Amino acid sequence: MDAIKYYRRYEAGQTIVWAADKMDFVASVVDGVASLTQTMEDGRRQMVGLLLPSDFLGRPNRETVSYDVTAATDVTLCCFRRVPFQDLIQSNPHVSQRLLEMTLDELDAAREWMLLLGRKTAREKISSFLSIIARRDATLNNLPKRAEVTFDLPLTREAMADYLGLTLETVSRQMSALKRDGVISLKGKRHIVVPDFERLMDETGDDADGGVLT
Amino acid sequence: MDAIKYYRRYEAGQTIVWAADKMDFVASVVDGVASLTQTMEDGRRQMVGLLLPSDFLGRPNRETVSYDVTAATDVTLCCFRRVPFQDLIQSNPHVSQRLLEMTLDELDAAREWMLLLGRKTAREKISSFLSIIARRDATLNNLPKRAEVTFDLPLTREAMADYLGLTLETVSRQMSALKRDGVISLKGKRHIVVPDFERLMDETGDDADGGVLT
DNA sequence: CCTTGTAATTGATCGAGATCAATAGCTCTC
DNA sequence: GAGAGCTATTGATCTCGATCAATTACAAGG
Q1: Which of B33, B76, B177, B186 is most buried by a 10 A CB count?
Q2: Helix %, strand %, coil % of chain B (to 5)
Q3: How far is the CA of A12 from the C1' of D3 (A)?
Q4: pLDDT for the residue A4
């Protein structure tokens, strides 16, 4: 496996693959954040995937993807040439089982995202997004309960709008509203402080706990 | 594989599994249509999956699902007890590879769905839904180009609304508008005639063709 | 035939978020 | 430090789809 891997770096804003382009590798994100975005003919855009470190990019047995892949921050990928990687899957059942698990997790995430897009209010969308980022950051550290949480937004307001199915103006307004209400505070444009994480969770519209015996 | 399979039938409207319930089987849809639905505490609902014949339900190595599964029409499932099925995956790499392919297809569908939910207008949503159903029906037959297409809606207006992130009133109004504009005609409430399928496609907001050299 | 119940249509009004527009804050560069 | 070029905030107004409400269309059952 190590024999066919190599690293690539992309700068923030750079396109990693264009929709319908040939893609001769699959990869896993080592560092940074990449987004998958679909665009309509008239320019309307919707983010359909957000890849954080350890997430997988690309599809075995398929040469193209149907969305643009863009580096939201500086990104480092660990790449594998696609054909050797496919051979690896054939010979090593463990790999395809692991890949299946990861894809199923991604599908679950996509389904929560669909609930967000279809039914949540703008304020709930923003809160949900902030808590997703906060949580993904927090897993690297260890999360104390009902504590202050701090992190940097990896996305611009415009990218957040594309993620949430909103306009950037609405994103900005709702961020200001959450700040005014003391749910978050901002240091600069991108650095977020959440004084009480549970308070933020209450704003997301999701069930308080994971659903185990409500 | 045949040794561990059995069939189950559900009537339209019946719940197949509740969110967070234990699910001791996985299954594939033989006949009918089932929906996966997520519900918020205050009752807002969003469909997050629509299972048509040949689609797969359930997740190996996980006892629960996080959404309700409901029979939209009468449904026949071909079930496999979960634990033997997991053993099958372990021993037969072909199965997990096939399952990976199916899951990746479902993820692609989920991503198009996200574009629909986040960025399309009500009219585009309805048109997209109708063309999805028409196409899934048409694969069973053989599809001539720019021809009349005919099919039955497997969903109520309310279920369509849950699919599309709309209210049932808006669904009804847009159906009437498409009828008024001659894009579709209705025989009864559920039977749809599309006189010109390309005309319907133009209403979806999607690119005219699959994206091969636009 | 008349009731009862569910699915669907249609109308009137309202409001959340989009759109249009101006301004502010930053970082770079010259 | 003035100007260009971003990103972000804030204001004013408009619109699409939601909400509230009444009516219609059936199908089932007494």
Answers
A1: B33
A2: 40, 25, 35
A3: 26
A4: 87
CB contact under 8 A, A111 and B67: yes
Note whether A44 and A15 are within 8 A (CB).
no
Report pLDDT for B208: 74
Q: Which residue of B has its CA nearest to A110?
A: B110
Nearest CB to A118 within list B59, B103, B117: B117
3-class secondary structure, B21: coil
pLDDT confidence tier of residue A188, bands split at 50, 70 and 90: confident
Amino acid at B179: K
Residue B213 is predicted with a pLDDT of: 44
Q: Where are the beta strands (DSSP E) in A82-146?
A: none
A76 Cβ contacts chain C strand, under 7 Å = no
Among A36, A62, A61, smallest CA distance to A47 is for A36
Assigned token pair, B103: 């899951």
Contact predicate A64/A21, CB 8 Å: yes
Interior/surface letters A112-142, b for 16+ CB within 10 angstroms, e for the rest: bbbbbbbbbebbbbbbbbbbbbbebbbeeee
Q: Phi first, then psi: what are they for B13, rounded to 5°?
A: 95, -20
**D9 C1' closest Cα residue:** A172
Report whether B121 contacts B205 (CB < 8 A).
yes
Three-state DSSP at B211 gives coil
Q: For residue A41, count CB atoms less than 10 angstroms from its CB and return exposed for 0-12, middle for 13-18, buried for 19 or more.
A: exposed
Q: How far is A54 from chain B (nearest CA, A)?
A: 18
Dihedral angle sign, alpha carbons of residues B177, B178, B182, B187 = negative
Cβ–Cβ under 8 Å, residues A160 and A129: yes
Please give the Cα distance from A147 to A128 (Å, whole number).
Answer: 17
Which two structure tokens, joined as six digits, stand for B41?
């505490």
Residue contact A110–B114, C-beta within 8 A: yes
- With a pLDDT cut of 70, the percent of chain B lying above it is 93
Tell me the pLDDT tens digit for each residue of B159-178.
Answer: 999 999 999 999 999 999 99
Average pLDDT over residues B7-36: 95
Asked whether A111 and B38 are in contact (CB, 8 A), the reply is yes
How far apart (Å, rounded) are the C-alpha atoms in residues B66 and A211? 9
User: Are A114 and B113 spatial neighbours (Cβ–Cβ below 8 Å)?
Assistant: yes
Task: Give A82's contacts (C-beta < 8 A, 6+ positions apart).
Answer: A23, A24, A25, A26, A58, A60, A63
Give residue A38's Cα distance to chain centre. 14
Those residues with Cβ within 8 angstroms of residue A115's Cβ, 6 or more apart along the chain or in another chain: B38, B40, B46, B48
